[in-house]
Amino acid sequence: MAIAYTEERRFTKEQTQRLFRSVGWVSGEYPERLYQALMGSSTVISAWDGDRLVGLVRALDDGAMLAYVHYVLVDPEYQGQGIAGHMIEMIKDKYRDYFYIEVMPEERKNASFYEPHGFRIMENGVAMQIVNPNW
After folding, report:
1. pLDDT digits (tens, 9 = 90+) for 80-99
2. Mean pLDDT in each 10-residue stretch from start to end of the chain (135 residues)?
3. Rounded to 5 degrees, what are φ and ψ at 56?
4. Can you give the pTM of this predicted structure?
5. Which of 89, 100, 127, 132 has the fewest C-beta atoms under 10 angstroms from its C-beta?
6. Closest CA to 135 of 60, 33, 23
7. What is the β-pairing status of strands 100-103 and 66-74?
């Protein structure tokens, strides 16, 4: 199997919904908003097995100093094959001239995935979030 990677946003709403649902992310329940968010993002790198969307990473940036990696996900049938790591390295390469590349794993256990790629837990850092109750 040869996985192809691209920044071309050729995915459909249905493909993104299937991918996000495959990993159990609530974003998959809002296909219109999810698609709109991805299309409006600074960078989206997707991984493909033929016509099947099997992975995706999304970054938001300020155009000069900070890039924030928001989504990194791989279809469970394709996990463990280095796809997520390859996409992270592509993001690091794209933003190599930025001062910061940040990621906020929602669960502390996921930090171990990012550490081999050079990310470090911020001393005294803490994640904060507001979830809109209207959702």
Report:
1. 999 999 999 999 999 999 99
2. 94 97 94 96 98 97 95 96 97 96 84 89 80 73
3. -160, 140
4. 0.90
5. 132
6. 33
7. parallel
Look-up: residue for tokens 């996921």?
110
Q: Which residue is associated with the tokens 């910061």?
A: 100
Residue with tokens 């300020």: 62
Alpha helices in 1-135 (DSSP H): 13-22, 31-39, 83-94, 111-114
Specify the pLDDT at position 34.
96
**Residue 6: how many other CB atoms lie within 10 Å:** 13
Give the tokens for residue 112.
């171990």
**CA–CA gap between residue 81 and residue 68 (Å, rounded):** 24
In contact, 47 and 83? CB cutoff 8 Å: yes
